[in-house]
Specification:
Length: 164
Amino acid sequence: MQQHLLIMIACLFSLNGTEVQAFTGPTTYAVVWVKSTDSLRLRAGPATRYKILKNIPFNAIHVKNLGERTRSDWCKVQYLGVQGWSACKYLGESSGARYYSAHGYTATLKFYQQASHNSAIAGSLPEYATGIEGLDACTTTWCRIRYDGRSGWVERQYLASWQF
């Protein structure tokens, strides 16, 4: 009887995808494919029904891999001392650098020498540009970038985290 109960419990966990498996991968992750207006949720358990413990910024690059993953593709991670679960599809191997793609504009997007529209233009991003290097953490409305050999500031709303 006790053995049947254990088998039933094991089946339930495997059906709902929360069965945890040991997972080797990168030491740290970068948040990827998250728009600059959003963040990656760090949850108390491996599903959206669990409480949000922290919001990880769209351009975070030091998310620690804790070596566990569920069959439903949730990864156990740590960010700024808080441990929890995040959707694996938004975590990519971190090289220690931030990279962005651009979206939400047509034709070209100017970037500036300073974080202001009144500053001199440093360069421009073509529509749907990728491989934009982030040079620092973003401010509330601006991100410092390097693209095509030029550095400058672009409005944060036009960026999303990206991975090669």
